């Protein structure tokens, strides 16, 4: 596949029928996968999915499902803030997104209130939406800077960090 820079990119697939799967659609398919790939990155890097709190099968399952659950809750709860930020796009140079660090920290601090609190849920959701909108990040499309890669110190990189239990 020829990129905009003139560079040739090779995409490998097991779909061999050229009539059903023409070569031209693979760039679009690759771009639609990007959301899934970034979700894996969020789960692994930001939420430390690979760093389990226990060694039993049950504790690994609990860590896995709680991490996926928190990620899903974050996605649902930040929807209103994403809409409000996109409505403000006319005033800003770049499209603004909810800051994941802010949203996960906010949910971590308010998840018990959300499920077990006795206060009004609507008021809490409005408060969460306001907190999600603090310190948004800008989406700058078509950036072409080379990625700065840092070498990992060792193969046991993830084992040095203790998982923060919510």
Could you please describe the fold and organization of this structure?
- With 166 residues, the chain is mainly α.
- The protein has 2 domains: 1-46, no CATH class; 53-141 and 161-166, no CATH class.
- The chain is 49% helix and 4% strand.
- It has helices spanning 25-46, 57-77, 79-87, 100-116, 121-132, and strands spanning 95-97, 137-139.
- It has a two-stranded antiparallel ribbon.
- Residues 17-67 form the Transposase IS4-like domain.
- One of its GO terms (molecular function) is DNA binding.
- This is Transposase IS4-like domain-containing protein.
- Pfam families: DDE_Tnp_1.
Features:
4% strand; mainly alpha; single chain; 166 residues
List the helices and strands and how they pair.
Elements: H1 25-46, H2 57-77, H3 79-87, E1 95-97, H4 100-116, H5 121-132, E2 137-139
Antiparallel strand pairs: 1-2
Helix pairs in contact: 2-4, 4-5
GO biological process, one term: DNA transposition
Domain Transposase IS4-like: 17-67
GO molecular function, one term: DNA binding
